[in-house]
TrEMBL record:
InterPro entries: DUF1499. This is DUF1499 domain-containing protein. The keyword Signal applies. It holds the Pfam family DUF1499. Keywords: Signal. It comes from the Bacteria. Residues 1-19 form the signal peptide.
Length: 160
């Protein structure tokens, strides 16, 4: 850990730990009751009509829910400084800690895949900062990056 990150960890304890350490294991999140803070340090990607309103609207994916969940987990595993914090396969929900490069700030990312209709599914991705009021767009950029990476793992639209 760089010396500045170590110093910051004296004030913000979770910054002093590697991976997902230093943070409690997240419980299953009830996505029907997400309450976003008034601070601009979250990003929500979800299907149209989702409440609360998403920042990014995700499509209906024409792949079975279990397959989409596996692909989303592959995307998460490919992200730098991102660590699985909890996995709830029955709910097709996973939680991750994504750490910033310089100061080791932890952000929390929750993904959940829901069956939409036979052979189709949808995705909810909620990324939020642990510390700070603002995030300089980091959580939205993360959501966009994950969704772009997921699109690259899916078959072309005509085959979905």
């Amino acid at each position: 850990m760089n010396p500045l990150a170590w110093l910051i960890s004296l004030v913000l304890p979770a910054c002093g730990f590697p991976a997902a350490e230093g943070l409690p294991t997240p419980p299953v999140m009830d996505v029907a009751h997400i309450v976003r803070p008034a601070t601009p340090n979250t990003a929500l990607a979800a299907p149209a009509g989702f409440t609360p309103a998403p920042d990014i609207v995700t499509p209906v994916y024409h792949v079975p829910a279990d397959r989409l969940f596996a692909l989303v987990r592959e995307v998460a595993a490919d992200q730098p400084r991102t660590y699985q914090a909890a996995l709830y396969p029955e709910q097709r929900q996973a939680h991750y800690v994504a750490r910033s490069a310089v100061f080791n700030f932890p952000d929390l990312v929750m993904v959940q895949v829901r069956a939409d209709s036979p052979g189709s599914s949808d995705l909810i991705l909620y990324s939020r900062s642990v510390y700070g009021r603002g995030d300089l767009g980091v959580n939205r950029k993360r959501a966009e990056t994950w969704l772009d990476a997921l699109d690259k793992k899916l078959p072309p639209s005509s085959e979905r």
